[in-house]
Amino acid sequence: MSFKNKAELKEVQEKDLKLILDWRNQEWIRDCMYNREVISMEQHLKWFEKLQKSETSISRIFYYGGIPYGILNVNDIDKVNKRCEWGFYIGSEDALRGMGTILGFTSLNYIFNHIPVRKICAEVIGSNKKSISFHRKMGFVQEGLLRKQIVRDGLDVDIVLYGMFKEEWSKKSARIQMKIEGRYV
Q1: Within 13 A of 169's CA, how many CA atoms are on the CB side?
Q2: Within 13 Å, how many C-alpha atoms sit on residue 36's CB side?
Q3: What confidence tens digit (pLDDT) does each residue in 129-154 have?
Q4: 22-44 residue pLDDT tens
Q5: Which domains does the chain have, with CATH numbers?
């Protein structure tokens, strides 16, 4: 059985909110975010309420083999220019090796096949070497660098900008799928 049959993205439901908040408030997740503060349940509920009404944002929980492991956030969906921004993370600390790659593959397929976009953009904190490596591995191209864009712990931090077009993903996805099937499943 292909990993693609085990991987799925499900709409965020109210019953999922505690799990997502627990994931998001883990220090190692917060460290990769613009906002590193612990989020309250009240703030989280406001996010969910706004998400439900939004025409430019989508969130999905990533399941593998029926177990929730992470989340996909698609924001700033621009129907005119056919582009969006994405963010994601594996929240489960006991996720199997390669689960982030499977989440990325599943998410990119979902975005390009279910949202009318031609381009996905990403902003990565310059100190997040794991995410930088991930975006390159998935086929994103670095499009820019926002030098000293944010201040963290009194230090100026760069933001790395990435982009990928639908036709680029079409060319790279089969190779990435083969790597996943050869390494992780």
Answers
A1: 20
A2: 9
A3: 999 999 999 999 999 999 999 998 89
A4: 999 999 999 999 888 999 999 99
A5: 3-183 (3.40.630.30)
Angle at 80 (CA atoms; ends 77, 83), nearest 5 degrees: 40
Q: Give me the sheet containing 155-165, strands edge to edge.
A: 7-11, 58-64, 67-78, 83-90, 119-125, 155-165, 141-152
151 Cβ contact list (under 8 Å, min separation 6): 157
With CA atoms as reference, report the closest residue to 139 among 87, 174, 181: 174
CA distance 150 to 25: 20
Amino acid at 84: C
From the number of C-beta atoms within 10 Å of its C-beta (0-12, 13-18, 19+), residue 129 rates as: exposed
Tokens of 165: 């077009």
> What's the half-sphere exposure (Cβ side, CA atoms, 13 Å) at 58?
17
Phi, psi of 5 (to 5 degrees): -80, -20
Contacts of 164 (CB under 8 A, 6+ apart): 108, 119, 120, 138, 139, 140, 141
DSSP state of 39: P
